[in-house]
Amino acid sequence: MAALFDYSAQLLEGAALTLELAFTSLCFGLLLGLAGAAAKMSALSWLRQSAHLVSNILRGIPEFLILLICYFGLSNLINTHFAGTLTLSPFAGGVVALALVFGAYASEVFRGAFLAVPKGQLEAARSYGLSRWQIFWCVQLPQAWRICLPSLNNMWQNLLKDTSLVSIVGLEDMLRKANIAAQFTKQPFVFYAAVAVIYLLLLAVSNPAFAYFEKRANRGYASPA
Amino acid sequence: MDQLALLLSQSWPVLLDGLWISLQLLLLSCVLGFALAVPLAVARSSPRRWIALPSRLFMSAFRGTPLLVQIFILYYGLAQFEWVRDSALWLLVGDAFPCALLALTLNLAAYMAEDIRGGILGVPAGEKEAATAFGMSRLMVTWYIVVPRAIGISAPTLGNEIVLQLKSTALASTITVLDLTGVARRLSIESYTTDALLLAGLLYIVIAAVLSLLTRYGEARLNRHQLR
């Protein structure tokens, strides 16, 4: 247990990197998800079909394999085209892979949520003379947001857990710090258990956060009973 | 595409071996995980706290931490203790394949138990009352009425869990199990390309598609008494 104290600063540093990776991937993943949902609802059939195809492919491959493909594939690409001048960090590779996976799931959730916004809302907004951008930003997005929050909570928790995979390609996240500490102290159980507890805590914190978001997003609606 | 075909023609025996290991992990962990999930879900739904609490703790522990961390705890972590290495448990966690299987099973059991718990909550009260009125004991009501109905109700999510589990088996490669991902990683390191990884990805998609068809068929069969 004393060893755990010696390495606590290292572990916390790793936890900070884990969170940084998760939030960066979340931002890009949400953007990708929105773009994917837009493509899936596009009037162009080739765009619709290819968006469905891509998201189905991404959802059928193990996250770990996607990470390996992104990291090593992009590294190879960069090596052949910009030999020596650029390298891909594990962090960037992790963000690309995690954002792609998150975006693939998010596009389906967003599509469902946008379709669930009542049509009358759109017609009303249009007859008020709002521009398309205004309709999207002030009418559709807040209502779709409310509908997809519970699924987003699930997806965020999966994303946070998936960040642990990036330690395999060498990101100095919490799990890799625990690996290093375990090798030095010969107490692997202590460190891996500590990592598990930190993940439990991080996930436990996100539930109340989402409850708050949901309450805020639902403030225009009468609560049942 | 030509490169992938060439790779497939050259190294299909190893890829097939890897695929077989992945399927074994999937099948065994699904059967064992399901067998474990039913009692867990029943215990979790018990009104008595001392029965519900252990299964609740188990479920939140396994659902709240990454599978990779669970695998590392079982495979590397437990080896820290001498009493584990001297006990029968070592047969399970001392070797990579049984250890990966154990982690996948426990993880899936936690997720499936949560799904079945939802199903148990969804069993109509009238059916339980009718069974009690027929003179069934509480154990009989649970075993003959609640559990089968709960499994039927949660069948779609359980099927989904099986398809997701295929993706989880890829993590076995992190502790040296040569499953499909493990084989692909080795091939890709040997050839300095990502072709093998892409090929493995394709294989995963095909299996996932077959699995989702199978689970949809199973679901329809499980709820066939309701189809009109």
From TrEMBL, chain A:
Main location: membrane
Membrane-traversing stretches: 15-39, 51-74, 86-106, 189-213
InterPro entries tied to this protein: AA_ABC_transptr_permease_3TM, ABC_transp_permease_HisMQ, MetI-like, MetI-like_sf
Subcellular location(s) per record: Cell inner membrane; Cell membrane
ABC transmembrane type-1 domain segment(s): 15-210
Record key words, sorted: Cell inner membrane, Cell membrane, Membrane, Transmembrane, Transmembrane helix, Transport
Membrane topology: Multi-pass membrane protein
CDD domains in the record: TM_PBP2 (cd06261)
One Pfam family here: BPD_transp_1
Protein family (similarity comment): Belongs to the binding-protein-dependent transport system permease family. HisMQ subfamily.
Matches recorded under NCBIfam families: HEQRo_perm_3TM
Name this polypeptide is given: ABC transporter permease subunit
Organism encoding this protein: Vogesella oryzagri
Automatic annotation (TrEMBL), chain B:
UniProt keyword list: Cell inner membrane, Cell membrane, Membrane, Transmembrane, Transmembrane helix, Transport
UniProt superkingdom: Bacteria
Record bears the keyword Nucleotide-binding: no
All residue ranges annotated as the ABC transmembrane type-1 domain in the record: 19-215
Stretch forming the signal peptide: none
Location of the protein in the cell: Cell inner membrane; Cell membrane
Membrane topology label: Multi-pass membrane protein
Transmembrane residue ranges: 20-43, 55-76, 88-109, 196-218
Family annotation (PANTHER family): ARGININE ABC TRANSPORTER PERMEASE PROTEIN ARTM, MEMBRANE COMPONENT OF AMINO ACID ABC TRANSPORTER
Family: Belongs to the binding-protein-dependent transport system permease family. HisMQ subfamily.
Protein name: ABC transporter permease subunit
Species: Vogesella oryzagri
